Amino acid sequence: MTPRPRPRPVRPALTAGTAALVLAGTLTACGTGSSADPNAKEITVYSADGLKSEKGDGFYDKVFKDFEKQTGIKVDYVESGSGAAVQRLARERSNTKADVVVTLPPFIQQADDKGLLDVYRPQGSDKVAAADKDPNGRWTSVVNNYFCFIYNKKELPQPPATWQDLTDHRFAGKLQYSTPGVAGDGTAVVIKALHDFGGQGPAMDALKKLQANNVGPSSSTGQLAPKVDKGELLVANGDVQMNYANMKSMPQQGIFFPAAAPGAKPATFALPYAAGLVKNAPHAANAKKFLDYLLSTPVQEEVSAIGGGFTSRTDLKPTDPNASALAKIMNGVQIFQPDWNDIDKNLDTYVNAWKTATGS
Q: What dihedral do alpha carbons 214, 241, 132, 89 form, nearest 10°?
């Protein structure tokens, strides 16, 4: 499997637009702050989309069911874009509802920056690489992943090779990417453009050109895959885990990584799902058990087999068919490490520049 880059923890202060949260499971009231019963056999998880299947056969579906069976603790699940999950945590600071948050970078770091996470080092986190967890113990990667684009294989025998190809008129009204600053994968579009084009100015020029084909905003990346599979869109953004996992139900999807220019290698970067214990969690003891469970060996061995992702533990080397297929997808793709120090200082600026360039 292609080695992953190891991004350093960052703490960007990002102001994201409001996005509606999608209830993906039955959400039961957890009480208000410390007044909730800490011994209730339940937890509430706020998570970015991608790990739960609409058909009930995804990674989260099995994890939640098995966790409840083993512990008696029911998982109430609320799904949204990465930025929206952190926004909701911030709004509920004085009346905390969630126990665990799972989101993509840089939003897990944003949650830490806002003081929304508590210290907890789950069992098994010692097997997670240092760069994939907060040194202060406030979050840990639980499923590794990579940013990607997807295309409709039926309509396009070959995926677009470069960013320039995506500006072709044939993609007018047939291309969409999720909103930077709201969705983790949408923010990744900007990060990849900054890398591929060598800075803010050239990146925004490229995204301005791309906007002529862009359908418009989407608060959640997961909403785009069905449209690509049906041919409503020809191209969208995504991430390898989510799009590979849903190929069973959306077989017309193909994964690709546009290169910066003709002749350049396709490139991407790591975009893991990271989990943290919410500060003042109503059911903190149950939440800690859940975080331990997520990093346990049996669950991590299912990350590829069930979830179509990459294990976060360095001591495990899955050999299931999905792990082999994922390695093949990543073969020949250049993995770059974003300049997280620069993103730490300037992410607000980059998102605002994107809004200006695209008129969003």
A: 60
